[in-house]
UniProtKB/TrEMBL annotation:
Pfam families: FGGY_C, FGGY_N. Residues 253-431 form the Carbohydrate kinase FGGY C-terminal domain. GO terms for molecular function: gluconokinase activity. InterPro entries: ATPase_NBD, Carb_kinase_FGGY, FGGY_C, FGGY_Carb_Kinase, FGGY_N. It comes from Kribbella sandramycini. This is Carbohydrate kinase. Keywords: Kinase, Transferase. GO terms for biological process: carbohydrate metabolic process. The keyword Transferase applies. Residues 8-244 form the Carbohydrate kinase FGGY N-terminal domain. Its EC number is 2.7.1.12. The keyword S-adenosyl-L-methionine does not apply.
Amino acid sequence: MTKTDGRILALDLGTSSTRALVLTAADAAPVPGALARHKISPTYGADGSAVLDLHEYVEGLLGCFDELQQGGHLEGIEAIVLSTQWHSIVALGPRGEALTPVITWADTRSIPATPGPSFDEQAFHARTGAWLHRLYWPRRIPWLLSEVSAAGFAGLPDLVLERLTGERVTSVSVASGTGSLDLATGAYDEEALAIAGVKADQLPAIVPSGWAGRIAAEYERRWPGLVGVPVHPPTGDGAASNVGTGAYDVTTAAVTIGTSAAVRVVHPIDNAPELPWELWRYRVDDKHAVTGMAFSAAGNMHAWLTDVLRLQHEEPTTVEIGAPGLIAVPFQAGTRPPATVPGGSGAYFGLSFDDTAESMLAASLQGVSLEVDRGLRMLDDLFGHQLSVVLGGGGIDASAWWRRCLTATFARPTDVCAEAEVGARGAAAIALGLSPEPGGEHLDPVPADVDRVAALRPRYESLRALTIQSASL
């Protein structure tokens, strides 16, 4: 796309907040002062529920539009793009009304899957990039059908898009996050639909990446600057974050540390390498996929520890990276599939009276770094070379110590993305064909740090295995 002096309105549909911000069309850089945010508070229950109020969520997002309008920021907008949380689901009634709150990825409720004796989960995983796990719709839908008389299902981004444009459709990227997409064809997988007990017409229609909607007529007077502006299909936040950090080809892995963490590589869907059992694969758009591994404890654990330990500073600056002694296995929130370690499995080993709040924080950040490194090394092997690494996300921005720790644990140089809003930036880049660069500091691993982490690794791996064994008892 030819670079212009226009602007992009980017929406970021997160779990803890929903944001609307304006970017330059030339390089997807944030326009100063053109950001509106609505805080989201998920509701958690003892039954494993983790839900969002759909009405409150959408109205909060529309309020972000109003705030930008009042600031004069909705003039000159050339495109509207969306980055969104993956895996959400809402049960719908016969008129398309929501029968449930938004069920988020963190919700653990489900019923056992009954796919039949001929089911081959290895083949299912190779086709869909997912597992038969409660995170995905083939497990979510049968459970929801046991709870409500649903006529259809949609995800949060599908319903936001419908509210904005009047059309209930989904993108190949969002559909891949349901665990119900045949990655090669870009259509719903027949076996996944059969396991879920639904037909394709009960789910949002999948539109091509070139599709564009328009703001619905009811909003034309409310936001006149957006009349006729194309609304592009949403991109899953993992894919968007990769591209937003500057990791958009097979030479580079993006490591993002937000509420959770992930390491991912974007690559062409054609001739993609065979997917290892331990990794997932989703779609970015019609031509690209993203392969990676995710981790449930990261920035959420950092925030929890700094609160529980009453740390005055959020950096364990007095502790050496890779320090021997205290080991933390960061399974407080369990593990993502295919592993089955439940939440509440975090562990410390080697606690002594010499330990401090900072050493406990450092051990936990080191544990997360070692977990991410496990995924990075699998991706190295999959793509046949040592990948370059770009770091991004709120956890990366918040802690220089953690940036150095990750760099030492990976034992390779890293580049830091200077832009905090990597999801919105990536969604804009994908929709408009841009290639953003990280733009932040370059870090070289400190040899002494690398040596300490290497010495620590065998003990960590042994204690990690012990933690997994204990969790199964």
